[in-house]
Amino acid sequence: MQAIRSQGSGGQNVNKVSTAVHLRFDITASSLPEEDKEKLLNLRDNRISKDGVIIIKAQRYNSQIKNKEDALNRLIVIIKRVTVAVNSRKPTKPTKASKMKRLENKAIQSQKKSLRGKVKESS
Predict the structure, then answer these.
(1) Half-sphere exposure of 49 (CA within 13 A, CB side)
(2) Contact 21, 8 (CB under 8 A)
(3) What burial class does residue 6 get, using C-beta atoms within 10 Å of its C-beta: 0-12 exposed, 13-18 middle, 19+ buried?
(4) Which CATH number characterizes residue 70's domain?
(5) What is the residue range of 6's domain?
(6) I need a surface site. Which of 12, 63, 78, 106 has the fewest CB within 10 A?
């Protein structure tokens, strides 16, 4: 992590205090498992350089401590996106009770609609 001067508005404070933070995380030199490193390197993210370094610039807050926390949280989000395994959906069939309920509701609906038709006059 490296403290740098923030861009944008902030009055005289901008010219004096280094509140923004540059966080650099080298993927290849990290202690992450090899498969997670590969997934991170294959991510299509502008924050990941060709050398395999994640670069995050945090300057939302006027405090260097808050910007450090923000940068670390954003790094954690990137890493979690890769490390969390997505469970695949197991296709299931509808139960017998749910089929019966659907058919009963269909019959009720059909009856309602048939009653909405023209009334036949009987003589």
Answers:
(1) 12
(2) no
(3) buried
(4) 3.30.160.20
(5) 2-83
(6) 12
> Letter for the amino acid at 90?
K
pTM above 0.90, yes or no: no
In a domain, 123, yes or no: no
Backbone angles phi, psi at 29, to 5 degrees: -90, 0
* Residue 95 within a domain: no
Instruction: Indicate the residue type of 27.
Output: I
- Domain-located, residue 103: no
Q: pLDDT tens string for the chain (123 positions)?
A: 767 777 766 666 666 677 788 888 887 788 787 888 888 787 787 778 788 788 888 888 877 888 889 988 988 888 888 888 778 889 999 999 999 999 999 999 999 998 887 877 776
Domain count, the chain: 1
Give the list of residues 6+ apart from residue 9 with CB closer than 8 angstroms, or none.
Answer: none
Confirm whether 116 is domain-assigned: no
Q: For residue 56, which of 43, 72, 35 has the smallest C-alpha distance?
A: 72
